[in-house]
Amino acid sequence: MDWLKFLHIVGAMVWLGGGTTLILVGLRARRSSDPNAIREFARVAPYVGIRLLGPAWIVVLITGVWMVLVSAAWKFSQPWVLLALGLFGLAFLIGAVYMSRVGTQLQRMANSTEIGDGAALVGRWIVGYGLVLAALLVAVWDMVFKPGG
Is the distance from CB of 44 to CB of 35 less than 8 angstroms? Predict the structure, then answer.
């Protein structure tokens, strides 16, 4: 169980830390006077998402479910477990519905000769991923304090 918990925490750290770093890079690109900064962010975000953030959320989900399955003390009916699963689902939905659309637009822009209003597009990405990170931070709080036992 300790190894599962370790992997779960590392996965959450990578997901939160990687997402926070990407938001900072996005803010820098959005404020830059160099239009290539926005194009580069549009290339970097999906690269990091596929290779780092995606595997991290998969590790978080698998290890979290696995820990509940093997623990005598934890049940899927406990409020803190339900809240954690709900927040994970919310983060996943934001990613699948909103972030995938914005990401597709960013990739099109990165491969285009026109940047258009790339700063606004990066801003939409930042807002969306900020919501994902907010849900994850509440989930971390939930994991630590386990409200409702």
Answer: no
Q: Mean pLDDT, consecutive 10-residue segments, the chain of 149 residues?
A: 94 96 96 90 92 95 96 95 96 92 88 81 96 96 90
- Whether 61 and 88 have beta carbons less than 8 Å apart is answered as yes
pTM of the model: 0.90
Determine the Cα angle at 25 with ends 47 and 139, to 5°: 80
Q: How many CA atoms lie within 13 A of 111 on its CB side?
A: 6
Q: How far apart are CA 29 and CA 122, in angstroms?
A: 8
**Structural domain total, the chain:** 1
Among 123, 92, 118, CA closest to 107: 118
Backbone phi and psi for residue 33, each to the nearest 5 degrees, phi listed first: -85, -10
Distance CA 64, CA 84 (A): 9
Structural domain including 141 reads: 2-145
Reduced 3-state DSSP string for 11-39: HHHHHHHHHHHHHHHHHHHHHCCCHHHHH
